[in-house]
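Hi Prof. W.,

I finally got the Serine hydrolase family protein prediction working! I wasn't sure whether to trim anything, so I left the full sequence exactly as given:
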Amino acid sequence: MNSAEQKKIYIVHGYQASPNAHWFPWLGRKLQLAGHQSKRVMLAESNQPNFENWQKFLSVQIPNLDENTIIVAHDLGCLAVLHYLTARFKTTGGNIKAGIFVAGFKAPLNSTLELNEFVQQAKLDSAVLQRHMPLALSLFSSNDPIVPPPLSLQLGHFLNAQTYEIKQAGHFLQEHGYDQFQEIWELMKPLLNA
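And this is what came out:
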């Protein structure tokens, strides 16, 4: 595979998680075996996320965005990435290939009130995101105990995303059976070959 075909995929965890949790290592391995670069981004102190610190960590670990960049984010990582992308696109332009958002949200959660301050600091621009990220995918679970499906649907609508409901997947955590994530791999395969 030549470098023009090789995709760079960044996998961004969420609240109370790490790059080594849930399905992130599995997806990283799958991508590398398919000949692509994958990087699992580390966000500081995920049990007590600090908005500014997470933005710094994203800027250090995702320095370059281009047409071969795909970002996969879960939970609070979706919101952090979307703020980061909004700011980057406004200052430097450019496009990425796709963003894939799993159990994402942009409104405060009743289940985790401690995240409300973080949520309120995120500034997203729908028009900017849609122009520079022409393809967005949103995945949500029918029985997510943390992020209610309507909030993921709201985010998908905001991004003009292709939205996929996965039945009974909980919050896509290891304890919900998600140490692998076959559905996301099937959705990604066409993007990797395009």
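The chain has seven helices and six strands. Does that look reasonable to you?

Thanks,
D.
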